[in-house]
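User: Predict the structure for this protein chain, please.
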Amino acid sequence: MRTIYFAVVMSLLLSACTASADAVPTATTVPPTAAPTILPTETVPPVQSVLGFFPLAEGARWEYAAEIEYQDPDDTQATAIWTGVVAVEVVGQEMIPDGKMVFTLEETLSPDPPDEVWRGARSFQYTVSENEIIDGAQSVLQWPLEDGQTWKTWPDSDFVYQTEASYKGDVETPYGALEDCYAISILTGPDIKIEMFCPGVGFVQHFYHHFGTPQDEFFDLIAFEPGE
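Assistant: Here is the predicted structure, written as C-alpha cells:
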C-alpha cells in the first residue's frame, strides 16, 4: 500500500495607467483653450486576503479518510496500517494587537491509533496575515500562489528548507471534484511532505513519507463544513 501512495505522490512532484495635464504658465494673454481630456485612472483591485481562499472561521471542519503505515512492533522487517478518520476543526479565533488573526484548531483521530503511530490528537494555531498562514514557526501557505513559487519554510530560523507550490488543476477527492488546486511540497531531505490546497475549501489531501523508521501518511478529504 505504501508503494502505491508513494508512486501517486511522486507523480505530483514529477501599472495603473493615468493621464494628466499640467498647466504651463505664460507671460502673454492667450484665449483659453478647451480643457484637456483626462483619461480615467485604471483601478487595480487589491490582492484579496488569503482568508478569501482558505475559509478559516470558527466552526469550520474538515474530515479525511486516513491511512498511516508504520513500523510493526512485532516484526522490524514489516509494517502495519492504521485506518480511520482524521478531523480538523476551528474551535476559536481572535484578533491580536498587530492586526493578525489567530485561529485555534483541534485535530482528532478516530479510532485512537496505536502508540507506534507518532501522530495523535493535538491542538495548534494558525496565525494569518494578509497573504500568509503561519503554523507555529512554519509558513504553510502564501497567497496568491503561482506554479513554481517557493518560499522559506521556517522564515525566522537558520533552516534552509523551502516550500514549493506546483499547480495541479482539477483534483478528485471523495468529497468531490475540486478546481485550480496546488500541491504544496516540503522536501526536508530526505523526508517528503505534500499538502494539496484547493481554493475555497483548504487542504484536501495530505501525504508524508518518513525515511528511516517507516511512517507514511495519506489523508483524503471526505467532508467539509464551513464555519460562521
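The chain has one helix and twelve strands.
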